[in-house]
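Hi support team,

I've been running sequence recovery on a batch of backbones for a student project. Most finish fine, but this one hangs at about 90% for roughly twenty minutes before it completes. I'm not sure whether the input is malformed or the queue is just slow. I've pasted the structure tokens below so you can try to reproduce it. Let me know if you need the job ID as well.

Thanks,
M.K.
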């Protein structure tokens, strides 16, 4: 793997995981030393992150990790709903095999196990979510739709972190994902799209509530 690719992958993961939170200035010298690369490949990595919308120019001092505002997230969810509901419809129409039945069962198991899950950050659960996303993309069979969804999911992966500290919301999402998988497995496009829309609306409500609570805490701190 090229040095610029390694730097890009490392920085992207740090941004998505929250290790580099919104507002963090990514100075070239500091990040190059931290990642063990020269400044040229680091600049390439930063340019790619800026193209992704994860960073933005910061007055000649490198780049800064972009903020996550309620307005930005609302816009992303509008696009996500249009794309994901259509993908779920297509997946329900075109699915083959038993993959979605297996995913439904896996999410039902995950919902029962989440309260006792010792996995920091619930990594295994989010890997299961990624499996469902990949299965829907593959079953839908539309490369352009999958590409567009990939970009949206990249940004919303940062938002998902807000649910990781809320076991009740995680259990709800497990049930919602199980419902989506079941509808696709049953070959019911309208039900799959409706279940996806419900999940997205609840996720947006959760983010909005969490963001509002965080703002209020900051004002009273």
């Amino acid at each position: 793997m090229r040095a610029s690719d390694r730097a890009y992958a490392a920085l992207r993961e740090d941004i998505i995981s929250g290790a580099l939170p919104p507002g963090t200035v990514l100075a070239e010298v500091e990040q190059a030393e931290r990642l063990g690369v020269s400044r040229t490949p680091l600049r390439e990595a930063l340019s790619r992150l800026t193209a992704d919308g994860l960073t933005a120019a910061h007055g000649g001092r490198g780049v800064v990790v972009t903020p996550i505002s309620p307005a930005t997230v609302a816009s992303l969810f509008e696009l996500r709903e249009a794309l994901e509901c259509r993908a779920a419809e297509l997946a329900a129409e075109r699915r083959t095999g038993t993959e979605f039945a297996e995913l439904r069962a896996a999410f039902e198991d995950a919902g029962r196990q989440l309260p006792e899950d010792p996995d920091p950050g619930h990594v295994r659960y989010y890997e299961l979510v990624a499996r469902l996303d990949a299965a829907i993309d593959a079953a839908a069979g539309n490369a352009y739709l999958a590409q567009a969804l990939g970009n949206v999911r990249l940004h919303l992966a940062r938002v998902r972190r807000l649910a990781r500290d809320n076991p009740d919301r995680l259990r709800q999402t497990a049930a919602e994902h199980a419902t989506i998988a079941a509808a696709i497995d049953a070959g019911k496009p309208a039900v799959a799209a409706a279940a996806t829309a419900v999940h997205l609306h609840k996720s947006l409500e959760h983010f909005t509530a969490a963001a509002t609570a965080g703002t209020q805490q900051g004002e009273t701190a």
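--
Follow-up from support: It reproduced on our side and the slowdown came from queue contention, not your input. The two ends are 45 Å apart (CA to CA). No action needed from you.
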